[in-house]
Amino acid sequence: MQSTFPYQVRCKNRRVAGDWENLAASYDNAARACFDWLATNADTVESDRCYPLKGREFERRGIWQYKISDGGRIWFTRIPDSPAVVIIEVHTGHPKETEPGHGRG
Q1: For 97, phi and psi rounded to 5 degrees?
Q2: pLDDT tens figures, 13-27
Q3: Which domain holds residue 19?
Q4: I need a surface site. Which of 8, 42, 47, 88 has the fewest CB within 10 A?
């Protein structure tokens, strides 16, 4: 059966896949909305919930963030010339790396 989504959503590794499963267990509807959004809008369309992370390292790697909840975040990147998105980090709380003064930039 062919997927109805234009993009494949993958996890970077088993740890990230496990983190995604844990997040989805806690935020079922929000996780489904995130998956559907990534699978449909992986061409990195900005929204209130999804935007590129700022800072040299994030920008160099093309890392975007999707807000699942007040604290939960998914970090992802699009694979160039491929119909795929890779979830590279799953955070159940607000990630410290994005807080001002954390040293990124």
Answers
A1: -60, -20
A2: 999 999 999 999 999
A3: 8-98
A4: 47
Task: Enumerate helices (H) and strands (E) in the chain, giving the number of each.
Answer: 3, 5
Q: Residue 66's closest CA among 97, 41, 96?
A: 41
Q: What stretches of the chain show up as alpha helix (H) in DSSP?
A: 14-26, 28-41, 56-61
Structural domain count, the chain = 1
Residue 42 inside a domain? The answer is yes
Q: What is the DSSP letter of 96?
A: G
In a domain, 103, yes or no: no
31-75 residue pLDDT tens:
999 999 999 987 766 788 888 898 887 877 889 999 998 878 999
